[in-house]
């Protein structure tokens, strides 16, 4: 056969392969629909849920929020199949890298997988900031590297330095088969819970700087790390988009609500009255500069609609620890993982 004809046929085949659901359908554009077959697992059958996410155990009385499924406008998501996932990732490792929103998604994935093979053998280990849950029978490692800024914070004579150009922590991410990054919530921390004293960038130290700009600089350092270190033939890279909080009812047209407490239903439709967080624009801008393939898990819109999905007082601290940032499990992060599943299988 003429080599050009062969090339044309191959090109058509490759494009055809890529034009299934994930290429033609935006998974992130959709709405929440009631589905009595949800949740995907039972909180009492997943002993690994950390207390702060275990809303039912902490006494949350309403259950309707568990009964929703994300429905993209242009296609259907495949239902999560934990056994298929575990077989596909046999001998491989998955790592979530980021803050407690990464922990939220990490535990969700462990529960989704474990409930597909209840009673299967597992081990749990923690070394430094890295926690590893191993499905022994399947040789699958589901890991979490807790690092709230992705870039380094180092203790020096002057104090704790947040180094926007330095990402030594990345040595822990090498050789992993599936990486899901996230950072945002800590960039606005101030006062006693801010875990640094100075910011260093471009060889200069500052007492403080514009936080969104600092976020962008750190993401750019991370982007360079990806371009330098990732072999796309081995590793798939995702970025968990900006997970939204719900402390201001005005943003969902309920100005009297001062938090997510008592919210029992998602917003109908696909549009959030309060619009998107500006950090998402920064994130998308930096992602657009990366040469290696990185898929944004663009979970902001779908999560914005879930003002009912947070622990509120059914997290750690009761009324003093009102939590409208994290998510109950089972709950919204299960959908993030279901979409992740639809990208990788
Ligand atoms: C979860 O398990 C408990 C105890 O086995 C059961 O009573 C409850 O109905 C289950 N909930 C769901 C949502 O399946
Ligand atoms: C999605 O699933 C529904 C119900 O199973 C079906 O009626 C519909 O045709 C499917 N849509 C697409 C785009 O596959
Ligand atoms: C709540 O959101 C509204 C509308 O976006 C805004 O005008 C207001 O300043 C916000 N309130 C607080 C306390 O942030
Ligand atoms: C996300 O939400 C914003 C604000 O509600 C809306 O303008 C935008 O069209 C939505 N995007 C998608 C992909 O649904």
From TrEMBL:
Residues 1-21 form the signal peptide. GO terms for molecular function: O-acetyltransferase activity. One of its GO terms (cellular component) is membrane. Residues 77-342 form the Trichome birefringence-like C-terminal domain. It is found in: Membrane. Keywords: Membrane, Signal, Signal-anchor, Transmembrane, Transmembrane helix. Residues 24-76 form the Trichome birefringence-like N-terminal domain. Its main location: membrane. It is a single-pass membrane protein. Pfam families: PC-Esterase, PMR5N. Belongs to the PC-esterase family. TBL subfamily. This is Uncharacterized protein. It comes from Handroanthus impetiginosus. The lineage of its organism: Eukaryota, Viridiplantae, Streptophyta, Embryophyta, Tracheophyta.
């Amino acid at each position: 056969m003429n080599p050009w004809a062969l090339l044309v046929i191959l090109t058509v085949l490759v494009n055809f392969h890529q034009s299934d659901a994930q290429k033609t359908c935006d998974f992130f554009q959709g709405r929440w629909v009631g589905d009595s077959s949800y949740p995907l697992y039972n909180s009492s059958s997943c002993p690994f849920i950390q207390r702060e996410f275990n809303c039912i155990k902490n006494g949350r009385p309403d259950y309707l929020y568990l009964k929703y499924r994300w429905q993209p406008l242009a296609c259907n998501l495949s239902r999560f199949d934990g056994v298929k996932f575990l077989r596909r990732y046999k001998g491989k490792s998955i790592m979530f890298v980021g803050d407690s929103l990464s922990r939220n998604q990490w535990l969700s994935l462990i529960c989704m997988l474990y409930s597909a093979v209840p009673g299967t053998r597992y081990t749990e280990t923690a070394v430094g900031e890295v926690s590893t849950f191993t499905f022994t029978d399947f040789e699958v490692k589901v890991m979490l590297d807790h690092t709230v800024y992705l870039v380094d914070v180092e203790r020096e004579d002057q104090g704790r330095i947040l180094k926007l150009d330095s990402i030594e922590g990345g040595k822990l991410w090498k050789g992993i088969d599936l990486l899901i990054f996230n950072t945002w919530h800590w960039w606005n921390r101030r006062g006693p819970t801010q875990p640094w004293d100075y910011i260093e960038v471009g060889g200069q130290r500052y007492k403080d700087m514009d936080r969104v700009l600092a976020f962008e600089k750190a993401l750019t350092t991370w982007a360079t790390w990806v371009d330098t270190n990732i072999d796309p033939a081995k590793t798939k890279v995702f970025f968990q988009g900006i997970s939204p909080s719900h402390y201001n009812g005005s943003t969902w047209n309920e100005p009297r609500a001062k938090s997510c407490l008592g919210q029992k239903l998602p917003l109908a439709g696909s549009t959030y009255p309060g619009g998107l967080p500006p950090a998402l624009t920064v994130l998308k801008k930096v992602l657009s500069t990366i040469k290696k393939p990185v898929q944004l898990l663009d979970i902001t819109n779908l999560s914005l609609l879930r003002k009912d999905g947070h622990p509120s007082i059914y997290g750690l601290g009761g009324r003093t620890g009102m939590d409208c940032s994290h998510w109950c499990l089972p709950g919204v992060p299960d959908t993030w993982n279901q979409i992740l599943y639809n990208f990788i299988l």
